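Hi Y.,

Following your request, here is the sequence exactly as I used it, all 121 residues.
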Amino acid sequence: MKRFIDDVAVEAIEAGLVAELGNLIDPVSVSIMSNNELDQVAGETETSRALRKDLETEIAVLKGGMAICRQFAGFGFFDLDQGGFGSDSDAEPGSGSDQNDASDLEASAEAAEELSACEEY
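Below is the corresponding structure, written out as C-alpha cells. Let me know if you'd prefer a different format.
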C-alpha cells in the first residue's frame, strides 16, 4: 500500500512539473539565447570537464589492460609451464641447468599470478 501511495504522489508531482515545462524553456527561447546564457543553463563546469577527461583517460588505460588480459586469457598454468615464457620447448626434460629450471618456474609463477589478477576483473 505504501508503494502505491508513493507512486501516486510521484505521478501527481511529475504531472505538475511536466505540464509547466513547456512554459519554462521552449525551442524559440532557446534559439534566441546567447552562447553565454546557454552555457549558464546547460553548460559544463571546468571541474566536471576535468573529471570527465580524467575518467576518459582511466577508461583508455583500463581498456588497454583488458586487451592484455584477454591476450593471456587462453593460457593456463600448464601452458605457461610447457614453454610459454622463456623455457626452451625443444630441450629434453632435465637436460637444462637447475638455474634455468628455477627461472622458468619463476616466470611461470609470475605469469600465473598476472593471469589470476586479470581474471578477477
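Confidence is low (pLDDT under 50) at residues 86-97.

Thanks again,
Q.
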